[in-house]
Write a structure and sequence with these properties.
binds zinc ion, mainly alpha
């Protein structure tokens, strides 16, 4: 059996004039190696990314593009709730709920806001909201851009 010839597409030459220009994605030849081509595709997708790609909520888009410049007056419960929420941001939801439960037992006349109420306050105040994306359960990648239509992770084969 004779070895098969592989067709390697010609690589466009970069002229000396192009080399003197600032580097641009468009001056590089298109890669034909699978992973290199995927990387170029990802770079092109990032360059062309828009908020509308992942956010279809018009009110949220408006809020992100026009953040409030006002500093709102906050009641004491909201302020303490926000501070506690921020202090426990790296912890699971249950940590805030447990701390709230303890605080509310101590100060039953001025209970702190629930997790969801304080989270909603924070989103309204900051203009930053959680966007959920499908991801590999093993955190290999997000199923977005060139991976948007895959049914399993190309790295670990997890569905
Ligand atoms: Zn994976």
């Amino acid at each position: 059996m004779e070895p098969q010839e592989h067709h390697i597409p010609p690589v466009p030459l970069i002229t000396p004039v192009q080399l003197r220009q600032p580097l641009s994605y468009n001056t590089f030849p298109c890669a034909f190696l699978k992973n290199l081509a995927l990387s170029q595709d990802m770079i092109a997708n990032i360059r062309n990314a828009q908020l509308e790609d992942d956010i279809d909520n018009a009110a949220l888009l408006y809020q992100l593009r026009n953040p409030s410049r006002d500093v709102p007056e906050l009641d004491e419960q909201t302020q303490i709730s926000l501070e506690l929420f921020s202090a426990l941001a790296a912890h699971p939801k249950s940590a805030y709920e447990e701390a709230c439960h303890i605080f509310n037992k101590t100060c039953p006349d001025s209970p702190l806001h629930s997790y969801w109420v304080v989270k909603s306050h924070l989103e309204k105040l900051s203009g930053v909201m959680q966007i959920k994306m499908d991801m590999c359960p093993n955190s290999c990648l997000a199923f977005t851009s060139p991976f948007a239509n895959l049914q399993q992770c190309p790295e670990c084969a997890e569905p």
